[in-house]
Amino acid sequence: SIELKRKISMVNDPYTKNFVKEIISKLELERNTFKSTVKSIDALTFLLSRYENTLSELEVASSNIKMEIDKLLIQLPQDPIIGAEALSRQIARIDKELDFNSLLQLYASNDLEGIFNVLPYFNQSNVNDILSLTKRYLLVETKRKHLVGVINKGAILIEDYHNSVLTDTQVLDFIELISIKREFDVDDNIDYLIQEYHMGFILRKEQVVNLNSLSNVVTLKEDNSKSSALLEMKMGGGKTSVLLPLLANKITESSYLNIIVMPESLIPSVSIELEKVLGDAFDSFLDVIVIDRADLGVLKNIKLLLNRIKFDYSHDKVIVISNSSLQTL
């Protein structure tokens, strides 16, 4: 009850706050008190109805912005001198989605030079326009996806209430979900926003705090300052889907070799998920290195390993290696 009352201070929307008050009232009374439970669920039903209306508005806004972006991506140059370069644009008409995903990957890495290479006849103003539209699209689309999650969770709460299986934990989780707000500056961390877009939910405060702590270590090392960090995160805290991809992208932008060390038993499952996340958001790839002590007895194998690591470094690949393989070295 104390925890629920603390959560209410995080809620600004009056309709949402009304639901939170009613649900607290429900939990403080006996579960068989018909009047209290019905009143609480009515508040939630009304809240979800408002969210569904907002969702419809966001869907329209998202679609309109995306059409503006697509129009810019496929526009042809007016100058006949560079008409030959327009061929790439005509080919791109076949698959506009590919162009947009490439744009997101370059944007996430803050690679303006790469954007100019993809769109060779864009001037600075054109690039500013398309990046501004892209940021608006990401903000709207991320909010839309988050709202879909809220509505789905709310529907489950109502169903579980009617089946008499609604728990306090579910209510707490839902209140936390509807209370969440973005905890980072979008302009300074566009990669965070793009990761939210791909995941379909907003980064939690503790995830942003942990990311900033580890990112600061990378920045300090670039300035030749001695720094390190040790963090512990609970299961389901977003280590594979949030922390590792975003931190790997930060390190890739630095001058350091990107290595992730984990227990050998986790590599098959984690590497598959991590490579998908890195590939979708940042166009990055993994190299899983397994080292056998017997191989290190041959000089040729050591040279091959060294060349492989150099190749990964020069091509911004993320090395994944087990702690046992690392100890073998």
What does this structure look like?
The chain is mainly alpha-helical and 329 residues long. Helix content is 67%, strand content 4%. It is built from 14 helices and 3 strands. Helix 2 runs antiparallel to helix 8 and helix 3 crosses helix 5. The radius of gyration is 25 Å and the shape is globular.
- Biggest beta-sheet profile: 3 strands, parallel
Oligomer: single chain
Helix residue percentage: 55-70%
Order of helices and strands: HHHHHHHHHHHEHEHEH
Give a count of the beta strands, DSSP E runs of length 2 or more. Answer: 3
Number of helices: 14
Tell me the span between the first and last alpha carbons. Answer: 54 Å
Question: What fraction strand?
Answer: under 5%
Low-pLDDT runs = 29-38, 79-84, 89-98
Main-sheet strand order equals: 1-3-2
Helix/strand/pairing category: mainly alpha
The mean pLDDT is 78
The Cα radius of gyration reads 25 Å
What's the helix and strand layout?
Blueprint lengths: L1 H7 L5 H15 L5 H41 L11 H7 L3 H13 L3 H7 L5 H39 L5 H12 L10 H10 L5 H18 L16 H15 L5 E4 L4 H16 L3 E4 L9 H16 L3 E5 H6 L1
Parallel strand pairs: 1-3, 2-3
Helix pairs in contact: 1-8, 2-3, 2-8, 3-5, 3-7, 7-8, 7-9, 9-11, 10-11, 11-12
Give a brief outline of the structure.
The protein is mainly alpha-helical and 329 residues long. It is built from 14 helices and three strands. Strand 2, helix 13 and strand 3 form a beta-alpha-beta unit.
